[in-house]
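Reviewer 2 asked us to include a model.

Predict the structure of this chain.
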Amino acid sequence: MSIFGAWLESRSRRQHIGLDTFSRALLADYWDHCSDVRGAAASTANRRVNHVHQLWEWCYDHDTIGAETPRPRRIDLPSPEAAATRAPTWAQMDAVIDAVGLEHWRRYLMVLRCTGLRTSQAMQLRWEDVDFDAGTLLIRPELGKSRSERRGRVVPLAPVLLREMSTWGPRQGWLVDWPGDTGQRDPARSTLRRAWERAGVPREIWATQPNHAMRKGYISGLRLLGAAADAVEFLVGHDMGIRGTYTDPWALPLTDAVARVPGCVPGCVPTVSRGGIGLSGTSVRP
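Predicted model (structure tokens):
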């Protein structure tokens, strides 16, 4: 709703935005903004418009302001196109990390590559969440998306990420320090899109969600390397891996799963071969 509120204020020339603002035209314009300006997928734009419609219904049903609110009316939302899921390989993720150039971006992408966390979670991690002695990461409850994930969880860190993070510093404040941070901590998609392009990774892998593609790569990569499904699901916060208070997460082979995360290829430069995107002439399955 904060996104909707900011958009509403930016487009309004009136000092006061009243309840009469709610209309079908408003919903249609907001869908266009989410899709065309913010680059959201159709399913995400639909969800955000539905949130606004829920607010409209709440206002209409309210004892005090209901009489001032127009009757809620829906608009026809486009059906999202079903697309086959394609995930980047470890080599392709290494290539985009190498292509992004800037150090703070490289650290951010390393966290995504080696943890499978969502962008919002990775950007809100703090140094005190990391226990170097135990080799673990605390994902605080307030960073959770689902009800199960909002209990918080502790996960082991991949050795490759622990080694990488040991060279970062100083160890205070945000884990990924962001120059010119205004508090939003929302990496620009345009920067990452250009990095994917420079890395030569096929567009169908990253075009709709350039940040989330790293999460797909982590999950798919670990499963291809033989990591247990429940362990991978717990590591990334899916409900399938968080089965309730009677399951001890450490009964899952979590350490074994993160140990399978391969090291990065330094200075990786992608080359196109018959087998797909490769590194230094080595063919890698796309």
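Confidence is low (pLDDT under 50) at residues 268-286. The first helix runs from residue 2 to 11. We have added this to the supplementary material.
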